[in-house]
Every structure is written in C-alpha cells, then in structure tokens.
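question for whoever is on the cluster today: can someone run the full assembly for these? two chains, 459 residues total. i dont have access anymore since they changed the login thing
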Amino acid sequence: MGFEVLLKGKNPVRLLAGLGVALRISLISVVISILLGLIIGTLMTMKNPLIHAVSRIYLEIVRIMPQMVLLFIVFFGFTKMTGHNLSAEVSSVIVFSFWGTAEMADLVRGCLTSIPAIQYESSKALGLSRVQTYRYVIIPQIIRRLLPLSINLITRMIKTTSLIMMIGIVEVLKVGQQIIEANRKTSPHAAFGVFAAIFILYFLACWPISCLSKYLEKRWEN
Amino acid sequence: MEEKEILKVDHLTKKYEDLTVLEDISFSLKKGEVVVVVGPSGCGKSTLLRCINGLEEIQDGKVSIEGKTGMVFQSYDLFPHLSVLQNLMLAPLKVQKRKKEEVQKEAEQLLERVGLLAKAKQYPRQLSGGQKQRVAIVRALIMHPEVLLFDEVTAALDPEMVREVLDVIMDLAKQDKTMLIVTHEMAFARAVADRVIFLDGGSVIEDTDPENFFGSPRTERAKRFLRTFEFESVNAS
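^ ran it for u. tokens below:
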C-alpha cells in the first residue's frame, strides 16, 4: 500500500517539518490578517465614500483573483519589477495576509453592523458612558461573533498553504512528493501511503481548530 | 401630601431637518402620577420619550427632570451576552458604583416580585418575549429612577404574553411609581392611567383624565382615533 516508506530514514521528521512550515506561514499570516482586518473592517463601517470605494475594489480583487495568481504576481512579478529578491516564504505571507485581511475585514464589518442600535440606546438609557458601553456591551458581543469566524479562517489558511509549493517552498505536500520520487523504484505504490499520511496530518492540524470554532459558536450563540 | 413635579416638559419642539415631529409640547408629571400617551402611529409618541431621556436632541423648549429616568423599549434591549442577573447588575455596579452584595440582593428581590427568580442565571435567548420585557423593566427599576418611561413595551409581543407584562406595570402603579407610558393597549391605558395625553400630528390634542378621554372625548380627532379600536374589536369578534 506504500505505507512502508513513511517510516524510512528521516521521512517522518521531514513530513512533520513540512507541516510545520505550512503551519508557520498560516499562523503568521492569520495574526497579520486579524490585526489589519480589525482596523480596515472598522474603517469600512464609516460612511466615507472614498474608504467605501477603495475597500470594495480591494474585496473584489481578492474574491476574483485565485490565490495562486497572487502568489505568482508577488513572487515572480515583484522580483522582476524591482530587482529585489523576495523570499518565497515572505511572498506567501504577503499573499496570505492580503487575502486574509480582506476576509477578516469583511467579517469585522459584518459583526459591527449587526449590533442593533437599541443596544447602544439602552446602554445610554441606563447611564453607561460611551467607553463603558463599548467595554461591557458592544465589544464583548463583537468578540463572541468574531472569534469562531476568525478561527475558521485559520483552517482555511492552512488548507490553502498547499499552494505554496508552487513557488518552491518545501512544505508537507512537497516533502510527500519528494519521498514518492525518491522511492519510485523500491515502493512504486508509495503515492497512496504518502498522500494518505498527508491527509491525516492536515486533518489533525485543522480538526481541533474547527472543533474549537464550533464549540465557541455554540456556547455563545444568541 | 405635597405634589411635587418630577418631570416638566416645556414647549418642546423636535425636528428632523425640515420635518417637525413634535411641536410645542408642554405637560408635567407629579410624583406618583401615571400618564399614558396614546395616538395614531407616527404621531411622535416614541420620539417624545426619546427626547425626554436624551436619546434625541430637541430643537426648542426644555425638559426638566428631578433625578433620572429609566426606560424600557419595545424589544431587543437586553444584553444578549449577559445572564439575566448580569443584565440587571451591570449599570448599578458600573454607573452607580454600588456594592455587589447589595445590588445582587435587590436584583433577586425584584426578580422574585416579577416571578422570574428562577431565571436569574439564564440568558435572554432562553426567555420568552414576555419574560424578557419583565427583566427589562426590572433592569430599569433597579437604578431607582424617579420616572419610568415605557415605549410600547408590549407591541412586539405575542398576544398571550402581553398580560404578564402589563400586570407588572399595573403593580408598579400601585406602588406609586411615577410613569410615562406609551401604549396601544387601550383597556390597559384606561385602567392604569391617572391622566391620558392624546398626541396627533406632533401636538397634544387632549390632556385629561381617562374617564373623560375614553368616555366622552372632546375633539373630533380623539373620537376618530378611539373609533379605530372599536372597529378592530368588532372585526375580531
């Protein structure tokens, strides 16, 4: 079945290290996306027509453009245009943050506008100051809506990192291919075993995160 | 007993740009008085309450209140991420800086009085519409306001839940709370009111006691307004 190659030599360590690369790039990108997304999403709720137009164009570009094309533009295009060499890892963090920020900003905007005006008014009627209203009433509700959705974004990032081998990063999928190539003669059926193992690795990385998201969503539904 | 004026509205005018919503409204509430505001939809009843507690700016006139107001809205005003008890305790603790033990004790006593002590640990989503509104009333009460404002608190409720909420307000009237109530429930208005203010087109058309208003309204507009309810009840039967 091809499972035997998995334990050969340093293969298990190499696969895990490949997963590590994928997780590292996704986590860095997620952190950047969440921070920028909070700022841009908040700006998007303002009624400034310029901000509105720019953010719309941004969201549409991200929505229409395949991530792979973005990766190629940044990794190959940027180097050609400026003469500076961007490493593959930096390029992928830029692309994933560009994409993640758009997703996050849209989530933040949605959460902010979904808080009914009466929540602000009844806080004011009770005598809460503006700061108290945000601190005790509005922000806790936004966090409860936002956290499960942003956790979901992490799993989507991890899954999408499978693309970064296209610009030469040796992540888990690339390691898998290398193992299959190297053992072509001795284990011609290695592909099944290796890809099954990679499937399980992705699953183990994403499943707990997805469970956490579902748990929080259920706990905080209102 | 000395009858002190708790709330005085003096020539209040409210405009949205060119549209005048309330024009030259004047009336006052004495301590312990229950005044019901009725009128066709869009007559400015809710806006009047919102002007009184400062949610809306006014363009002319004056509102003077001895102390503070408490307000109960039509719906959705409980904080969904807080339990019933936390909803009640937030403002007393953070705004009035009262002691936690004392506030909790009062919250539980008030909940008991409206029959909801068992729900103290539950969240708004676990309550029925009528229960939510009773909690909202308690949340206003616990701040010890001098005047309670009710903005159509039963309008969004299923008919079978209207009664339990109105009973709580009736009970408050018996305790001599000063209240200004906007409602569409005419039988309730008649039962609870010391005085009825009939608002139409942004102006006070009648300001009289309930027997006079419901028994023999003076103005044609009030008669027409009251007839719409008769028609509804004829239709329903």
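summary bc i know u wont read the tokens: The radius of gyration of chain B is 18 Å. Strands of chain B lie at 5-16, 19-30, 34-38, 60-65, 69-72, 147-151, 179-182, 195-200, 203-208.
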